């Protein structure tokens, strides 16, 4: 924890207390966060923390992003809020790393400035974690103003898909399998590109989620990110960071739920004494604390190794990111469940913070690679398959 990261944490926590906490339930009920929140976060230097200054970011790294996220969860941010506000964390890295200068200027810089919202479209109605099996096609052909890709297909479960000004989209430009996948930036308003519907979910209520369809959508060839048919590899390169981020979501809301539960147990009296006076309650709080600390410590170490590690550590870090995500998701599942239980009927009421975290926790073992898929991947990387 450097002096810089301590200051970053303080800024992030104050931003949540001032700009988020008073309005979060309103945004949950509305089903999305306002666009103005992105501009406010950018003004505080929060949106581009881990992006290079050369593309409009703050020049930090993954460890800075972890510190920022931890502080925001500690101050009361929800997992859904973070998914919506920091949707650029999944929509922009491929563009920042492999996009042309024109794409960076048109999409990355405005998004990091809070002027545009981007989303990442990979999952399709017929499949989720199987990125190599996507079916949305992009056929290249000549156009009056240069070559275009004609896109046909559908995407689902797209975070920020309703509000997005542009979508970094995985498409099939080549043959079957991972070698035929590319990334295209498709702008809202392009003829044939529609948001079919906003999806109602169990949790992440303030994070809008969409189904998208593409019918003969003509996209300029200049919107190709990197080389044609390199999309799978670009996506895979970002998976470690995405999984670490979701692990931070998990232990972040678990730690917050533990804090809320402990405070409630000190204040709530039953049978003439505080709830925390019961040994079974104290032991439950200790077990909740143990799981939070294990998940936090392990995830931080994996994040550190990914940031500063040697190239020969690559495969082991990929596997460890899978394990960190699962460890943190298990902690969130347990801790958020017990926090609701300790709150009793109050915890079951809609609008109670622990109830929100309980619902939000359920998506985390699914998004960014389902636990079952990541466990099998880890088995292969660790030599067990």
From TrEMBL:
Q: Which residues form the Acyl-CoA oxidase/dehydrogenase middle domain?
A: 120-217
* Name of the protein in its database record: Acyl-CoA dehydrogenase family protein
Q: Which PANTHER family match?
A: ACYL-COA DEHYDROGENASE FAMILY PROTEIN (AFU_ORTHOLOGUE AFUA_6G10880)-RELATED (PTHR48083:SF28), MEDIUM-CHAIN SPECIFIC ACYL-COA DEHYDROGENASE, MITOCHONDRIAL-RELATED (PTHR48083)
Give the superkingdom in one word. Bacteria
Q: Which sequence ranges form a coiled-coil region, renumbered to this chain?
A: none
Family to which the UniProt record says this protein belongs: Belongs to the acyl-CoA dehydrogenase family.
Query: Which Gene3D superfamilies does the UniProt record give?
Result: Acyl-CoA dehydrogenase/oxidase, N-terminal domain, Butyryl-CoA Dehydrogenase, subunit A, domain 2, Butyryl-CoA Dehydrogenase, subunit A, domain 3
- Name the UniProt key words of this record, in alphabetical order: FAD, Flavoprotein, Oxidoreductase
Required cofactor(s): FAD
Q: Which residues form the Acyl-CoA dehydrogenase/oxidase N-terminal domain?
A: 2-115
- Which residues are in the Acyl-CoA dehydrogenase/oxidase C-terminal domain? 229-380
Task: Provide an example Pfam family for this protein.
Answer: Acyl-CoA_dh_M
